[in-house]
Amino acid sequence: MQQTYKLVIDCPDQVGLVASVSQFLADHNATIVEASHHTDLQTGRFFMRHEIGASTLTLNAESFVKEFTPLANEYQMNWKFTDSSKKQRVALLASLESHCLVDILHRWHTGELYCDIPVIIGNHPQMKQFADWYKVPFHWVDFKALGKEAAFAQIKTLLQEYKIDLTVLARFMQILPDTLCQELQGKAINIHHSFLPSFAGAKPYQQAYDRGVKLIGATCHYVTKDLDEGPIIEQSVKRISHSDNAADMVRKGKDCEVTALAHGVRYHLEDRVIIHRNKTVVFA
């Protein structure tokens, strides 16, 4: 895989901004592999993602940050500069349903998701079999024995010990406490079933079947203290007909869940997502 750097920028829209960044890159012999721009006309914000070939750039990562900082300050940028050769460390949290967990593990194992997965955390011991198969350390956090406060304290400690960059809730059926949501802001991704219309509570697919819905789907989003209301990264839908029963909806819903979650995780790992207020710009 070719080593690249990603320069991701979010700032007030201004005349000359793109020209200034382009000139800086040209001055340091940067080869632009991929470039994406977007202006939010309602908020007056400008978003940019440049992927740069590392082999031609005359600056290393540390020097680039130092040299680029004055320009970033001039244009009031929120920005980051990342190196593709440094894999992000991803923790997977799971409960009883395994489809999202196994799908992410398979995509990681085959190289589709470029990251390290040093730990899987489950609140049910059954998930250990999948961790063992992929040779990933597994930690069972017993919520019933510990209670929620102590259990989440243990999870927080594990995330710190494994130096986790991204936490993925792969159908983890426990609501993260507000304090942990705050600490993981922009660094935790969740997947949940979403319907048009939506159905809360128990047996959502049965509720959807009873209402005769024509579309089902799933939403991949960042975790916030507002349950299932964080910035949306990716969504997937499937059409339903009168011949589909509740079991068919569950099967098709799982397809949506694994697809949306995998895409959302990949976009995050590749620095393609910029959070703006409660929305995202995704340069897919």
Describe this structure in words.
This protein is α/β, with parallel strands linked by helices. It folds into 2 domains: 2-81, 2-Layer Sandwich (Alpha-Beta Plaits), CATH 3.30.70.260; 87-280, Formyl transferase, N-terminal domain (Rossmann fold, 3-Layer(aba) Sandwich), CATH 3.40.50.170. 35% of the residues lie in helices and 30% in strands. The chain has 9 helices and 13 strands. The chain has helices spanning 17-27, 61-74, 99-109, 128-133, 143-146, 148-161, 178-183, 204-211, 246-269, and strands spanning 4-12, 31-40, 45-53, 78-83, 89-94, 116-122, 138-140, 166-169, 188-195, 215-222, 232-239, 273-276, 279-282. The strands form 3 sheets. The protein has a 7-stranded mixed sheet. Strand 12 and strand 13 (279-282) form a beta hairpin. It is globular. The two termini are 19 Å apart. The mean pLDDT is 94.
Features:
2 domains, Rossmann fold, 284 residues, 7-stranded mixed beta sheet, alpha/beta, 4-stranded antiparallel beta sheet, 13 strands, Alpha-Beta Plaits, 35% helix
Topology of helices and strands:
Blueprint (H helix, E strand, L loop, with lengths): L3 E9 L4 H11 L3 E10 L4 E9 L7 H14 L3 E6 L5 E6 L4 H11 L6 E7 L5 H6 L4 E3 L2 H4 L1 H14 L4 E4 L8 H6 L4 E8 L8 H8 L3 E8 L9 E8 L6 H24 L3 E4 L2 E4 L2
Helix pairs in contact: 3-9, 8-9
